[in-house]
Specification:
The chain is of the alpha+beta class. The chain has one domain. It is built from three helices and four strands; from the N terminus they run αβββαβα. The chain has a four-stranded mixed β-sheet. The longest helix has 17 residues. The protein is globular. The two termini are 18 Å apart. The mean pLDDT is 82.
Length: 132
């Protein structure tokens, strides 16, 4: 993870959970912030591997205090679509494609369970810029 010298001074802890997850904690003037850098297994990976990834990610989320600002950033190999009916608290209508793929559905479920918002769907971007 790259950061400015100012951010480095605010750094309180970092931990490589595994080769796909990194937890970085900062203390800012306003709050404590926990950032999880994520790299999900490829779309065509075995289901067990994907399940293990989400279990590990959930365990990291569970160890972060409720009062911390939580940011999960990275590649989730997910397409969430534009349909946000019933999940307006998780995403807006600016996703890629019309419907979510399997990874997208898993990602939406994870966000919903953990009271997280998919920031990638909040603002308009050209479709070509929505791919990772």
């Amino acid at each position: 993870m790259m950061m400015t010298l100012r951010a480095e001074k605010a750094l309180t802890k970092w931990r490589a959970v595994n080769s796909r997850l990194l937890l970085v904690k900062f203390k800012t003037k306003q709050c404590h912030m926990s950032i999880i850098v994520c790299y999900k297994p490829k779309y065509d990976s075995h289901e067990e591997r994907k399940d293990e990834y989400y279990e590990e990610l959930q365990s990291v989320i569970n160890e972060i205090p409720m009062r911390d600002m939580k940011i999960a950033i990275g590649d989730f190999s997910a397409r969430v679509g534009r349909n946000n009916q019933g999940i307006e608290n998780v995403m807006n209508v600016k996703g890629l494609g019309e419907v979510a793929n399997e990874n997208g559905a898993n990602f939406i479920s994870f966000c919903s369970t953990n009271n997280l918002v998919n920031g990638g769907t909040l603002f308009h971007h050209e479709d070509i810029h929505k791919y990772t």
